[in-house]
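Example 4.3 (complexes with small molecules)
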Amino acid sequence: MTSFPIPPYSVVNRRLFVKLPKPNPPNSYSKKNRAFEISCGHSYFEARDIKYRPPGTQINLLNDVSFTLPEKSFGLIFGRSGSGKTTLLQLIAGLTKPTSGSIYVQRYSDDGSPTQPPVPLSSERVGIVFQFPERYFVADNVFDEITFGLPRQKSDLKVKELIARRLERAITSVGLNGIPLDKNPNSLSGGYKRRLALAVQLVQSPELLVLDEPLAGLDWKARADVVKLLKNLKKELTILVVSHDLKELTPLVDKSWRMDVGGLLSEKPLPA
Ligand SMILES: Nc1ncnc2c1ncn2[C@@H]1O[C@H](COP(=O)(O)OP(=O)(O)OP(=O)(O)O)[C@@H](O)[C@H]1O
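Answer. The structure with adenosine-5'-triphosphate bound is encoded below.
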């Protein structure tokens, strides 16, 4: 895990993120330069030539990172510890700005040509689940944990309905039905805590979900459950995972990359 300072998790987790870099001017776009795309519907999220040098340091953690991930597909980034994988996820989620390069959304027509100028990837479209997310639970019951980042004026009927709808959808998609909403999150099993952490993000309706080591610290049963859950979520949204657990995740993976020391990313298909 990275050690550089980020805003308190209670804020980060609810995606009240820092502002994103400005997009390149539309006429600077060229398909030849395309580096990193994630599609959503007919939209593509694209980033290219990302470099990142932490403030006050002399060496780039990430160097010209580029890749493309089609919509509703599952991308996996693996590689040596300390190579910069977590840092890349944080950039994609908008928690910190790249030193150079850009991440944005692009729409393409069926023949592969861009249909409109690219727009910056808004952090509101991205949900991030950190490694060991349960360490950052902030509420003392499941309902408050999931709805923490939703509008607070619960007396408003429309807001109440919105919260109820989103809550039900999030709970259903992670299989938390049957868990009392007044239960303390810390009393859940390891696997259910992970489900809850996913629900916290899903309630915000992200289009891209990024997860850092989603299986870490779980027993075999909970790991299998999370893999199954991710497989289902892939039908609804695009998923990008950083993990060392290649064997268990391989059946889900559509595209994979290896991050090498020096922050260099290259596409590496996994053996079937
Ligand atoms: N602001 C910073 N200043 C100095 N070094 C940093 C900063 N941010 C991250 N690092 C270092 O950069 C390296 C990359 O960290 P990162 O957590 O992204 O790697 P990782 O590939 O995810 O590692 P792991 O697989 O162990 O989680 C680490 O050695 C980390 O300590």
